[in-house]
Amino acid sequence: MKGDLFSSQHMVQPATAPGMSVENAKCLRYTVNGEMLARQGAMVAYRGNLRFERRGQGVGGMLKRAVTGEGLPLMTVRGQGEAWFAHEAQNCFVVDVDPGDEFTVNGRNVLCFDSSLSYRIATVKGAGITGGGLFNSVFTGHGRLGLVCEGNPLVIPVSPQYPVYVDTDAIVGWTAGLATSLHRSQSLGSMLRGGSGEAVQLMLQGEGYVVVRPSEATPQKAQQH
Predict the structure, then answer these.
(1) What are the CA-CA distances from residue 222 to residues 7, 53, 60, 69, 210 (Å)?
(2) Is the separation of the CB atoms in 201 and 166 below 8 Å?
(3) Distances (CA, A) of 219 to 1, 33, 45, 151, 223
(4) What does the mean pLDDT of the chain come to?
(5) Residue 8: what pLDDT?
(6) Which residues lie across from 184 on neighbouring strands?
(7) Do 136 and 124 meet the contact criterion of CB atoms below 8 Å apart?
């Protein structure tokens, strides 16, 4: 076969290392030799001897989704082979979590991760239902975490002198050492979404980084799956 479709730009090359890697801007590849975890429905292709098992629907098998507070079901992938993961052609990124690190991430942005990572469900301090629910997962341990984001994310440094205010529908995640609280802006509310009420942002203070998507979440789209 000939043509641009079959050029090296699109052709999958042999894996050079085990574990997670970026196949292209919209897809991650995972070379499995044992076990890993991914969001259900995210596998787009695989080869080899792999088994895909739905994880339990209890707290231990779910990542809470912001805005709606719904669960994001996970699946375990076991065996030897390669699998490719993607979600609605969103951009894919890999985060390396080292011992002592802590990365808080919105469940809707999780694509896949190493089984060596631990995670717990946490409600964002200062953000109850009025703040969008904001159930997030806190990842610790040592391994790689694959994320998706609509568009190219913004990584904004946070310092004690310069706290950052983020729309609760736009936040992806943040690093350890940041304190969160709700910030209400009466004046800003009159300019956003054509409304006249208060606008609510998540204020992050301390020393670290916050990751923001360049668009607000659309509840209807978030509930499709």
Answers:
(1) 34, 23, 21, 11, 21
(2) yes
(3) 42, 37, 28, 17, 6
(4) 82
(5) 76
(6) 200
(7) yes
pTM above 0.90, yes or no: no
Please write the tens of the pLDDT for every residue from 82-115.
999 999 999 999 999 999 999 999 888 999 999 9
**Tokens standing for 206?**
């301390």
What percentage of residues in the chain have a pLDDT greater than 90?
Answer: 54
Residue 61: what are its φ and ψ, rounded to 5°?
-110, 15
| One-letter amino acid for residue 204 of the chain | L
Helix (H, G, I), strand (E, B) or coil at 162: strand
Distance between alpha carbon 219 and the CA centroid of its chain, in Å? 16
Q: Which residues contact 135 (CB under 8 A, 6 or more apart)?
A: 64, 65, 66, 69, 107, 121, 122, 123, 124
